[in-house]
Design goal:
The complex is a heterodimer of chains A (247) and B (309). Chain A has a single domain, classed as Ribosomal Protein S5, domain 2, CATH 3.30.230. Chain A has four helices and nine strands, in the order ββββαβαββαββα. Chain A has a five-stranded mixed sheet. Chain A has a four-stranded antiparallel sheet with strand order 7-6-8-9, with helices on both faces. Chain A is globular. The longest helix of chain B is centred in the C-terminal third of the chain and has 19 residues. The relative contact order of chain B is 0.10. Classes of the chains: A alpha+beta (247), B alpha+beta (309). Chain A: One of its GO terms (cellular component) is cytoplasmic exosome (RNase complex).
């Protein structure tokens, strides 16, 4: 993009971060009473709400019942006011359908699905404000919501994006960096075992640089994991102190 | 047209002024206590609990590469060789002998499907209910045809867990006169982990109402039925209007139960009663306000600590 310097000579990005720095993450568990689990996350200016219902009996057609595992059902949607341009976004449009599929695949890999045969888990994700990294924020919010719902996971699922500018990999890219035409890699991982459960690449990137950029994304996932883990620990300690469960 | 709109606007503003009690989100006092030092045996998903192979794998854990990992966030509980992790809140995990409140979802062949807030719908077999009048005999085809007369979709029942199916679904029974169809009262739904396991879950509170604390997190509040004779398994419903005073007691109890749940306090007869008595200083309407709730709970909590269980 002409006139837009993604990485200055001093090594700063447009929003003042260094290449390896994440945006500020703030999150909260248990934001809804009605849902079995819920979470809210802010990654920079990207704000996402997630709600989890279940495991419960399969609603709708009986043919969807899986006899040995749980059916993971996701719904991704973006609020009308989430982007710079106000636009009505019907749920079934192609972009959100694709995102829904991706989320479903990601969580099918992370939830211990065989523990809940014949049942269904619903994950509803709503993007309230979008500033790049919608998938990443959605995955992170859903993970927190699943933990809040007490659903058995193999590990946290953390997602992070990365890009490649001026021979330098950038982590957790925002909307400006995303739309500048530089390559983008999105990875969702199980940070403790370093397994990648989802990987997506947009744009063109030379093969030689691939591993560096991927490593940057995986490193970002680990950093995000540390932040989320702290939030979960604080939440659990706080609630169980009130319960009087500590002894 | 314009005039009517204007009138409506004025009317709404008046209603707003007189009825709505506004709180700004920022002014809400955070009820959160300062996070005390982290609890020692706390784990989150993916944490290694132990690399020792001498332990048994319980709920909330999984084994991989000869290591035991946690799969939920919670506190590690160890009973001899068995390790479990208990999450803060989950769906209801049934155990045999639990008292539950459920809602009939479906009438099927010789069975009812019941919602008990569990992972799968529960089943109430025709053979595990008491027939009206307490008749003891084999269930005939006639009874099958009458099933919808006994219990229909949307009815609430109290029941006991009889057994668990292999997939985790519950089988219920109402083979006692204390169980059966519920008639007039109010259902409150809270987290199952807040219900304390007790010898009895049916309580006639001295304040003039009865409460059933279902292990599945459903709480039923109804006016006390005095006559022993009326325990017919609920087939003869008493649909007489309930007095205003009784209704106020029920409404107050409901608010107390919700206040206890909001502050993550365990529910059992004493805690509910103490909360109820602490709330008597306020009108029923006031007890839904967050600051009043906090006050009531604090008073009840102090009394619980002072006077024991």
């Amino acid at each position: 993009m002409a006139g837009l310097e993604l990485l200055s000579d001093q090594g700063f990005r447009i929003d003042g971060r260094r290449p390896h720095e994440l945006r500020k993450i703030q999150c909260r568990l248990g934001v809804f009473n009605q849902a079995d689990g819920s979470a809210y996350i802010e990654q920079g200016n990207t704000k996402v709400l997630a709600a989890v219902y279940g495991p419960h009996e399969i609603r709708g057609s009986r043919s969807k019942v899986l006899h040995d595992k749980v059916l993971v059902n996701c719904q991704y949607s973006m609020a009308t006011f989430s982007t710079g341009e106000r636009k009505r976004r019907p749920r079934g449009d192609r972009k959100s359908q694709e995102m829904t599929m991706h989320l479903q695949q990601t969580f099918d890999a992370a939830i211990q699905t065989s523990l809940y045969p014949r049942s269904q888990i619903d994950i509803f994700v709503e993007v309230l404000q979008s500033d790049g990294g919608n998938y990443c924020a959605s995955v992170n919010a859903s993970t927190l919501a699943l933990i809040d719902a007490g659903i058995a996971l193999r590990d946290y699922v953390c997602a992070c994006s990365s890009s490649f500018v001026n021979d330098t990999p950038l982590t957790d890219i925002n909307y400006l960096e995303e739309s500048s035409g530089s390559p983008e890699i999105i990875a969702a991982t199980l940070p403790k075992s370093e397994q990648i459960v989802f990987l997506e690449m947009n744009g063109r990137l030379h093969e030689d640089n691939l591993s560096r950029v991927t490593d940057m994304a995986v490193k970002g996932c680990k950093d995000i994991h540390d932040i989320l883990d702290q939030v979960v620990r604080d939440h659990v300690s706080e609630v169980s102190t009130v319960h009087g469960w500590e002894n | 047209m314009i005039i009517t709109h204007l009138n409506l606007g004025i009317l709404l503003t008046r209603i707003w002024r007189s009825m709505v009690d506004v709180r700004i989100a920022g002014a809400r006092s955070s009820t959160k206590p300062n996070v005390s030092a982290e609890i020692s045996n706390l784990v989150t998903p993916g944490d290694v609990i132990t690399a020792d192979t001498g332990f048994m794998r319980g709920h909330g854990t999984y084994m991989e590469d000869e290591k035991l990992y946690a799969s939920v966030a919670g506190v590690v509980e160890r009973v001899n060789k068995l390790i479990c992790v208990k999450p803060l809140k989950t769906r209801y995990n049934g155990e045999i002998g639990d008292v539950v409140i459920g809602r009939i979802l479906e009438v099927g062949t010789r069975r009812w499907k019941v919602d008990t807030h569990a992972k799968l719908d529960s089943v109430l077999m025709l053979s595990s209910v008491n027939l009206p009048g307490g008749e003891l005999r084999r269930r005939s085809e006639e009874d099958e045809k009458m099933m919808r007369h006994y219990l229909k979709e949307g009815d609430l029942i109290s029941a006991e867990v009889q057994s668990l199916f292999s997939d985790g679904a519950l089988s219920l029974h109402t083979r006692s006169l204390k169980y059966g169809k519920l008639s007039q009262g109010q259902l409150v739904s809270i987290s199952p982990s807040l219900i304390k396991r007790r010898k009895t879950h049916f309580h006639n509170l001295p304040c003039g109402a009865s409460i059933i604390l279902g292990n599945n997190g459903y709480v039923w509040i109804c006016p006390t039925i005095n006559e022993e004779v009326e325990q017919t398994g609920g087939y003869e419903q008493n649909l007489e209007p309930i007095q205003k005073s009784d209704r106020e007691v029920i409404a107050r109890l409901r608010n107390c139960v919700l206040a206890l749940a909001e502050h993550k306090m365990m529910l059992y007869d004493t805690s509910v009663l103490y909360t109820f008595e602490a709330s008597l200083r306020y009108s029923v309407k006031e007890t839904v306000k967050p600051e009043v709730m906090a006050d009531i709970i604090e008073v009840a909590q102090q009394r619980l600590e002072r006077e024991g269980t």
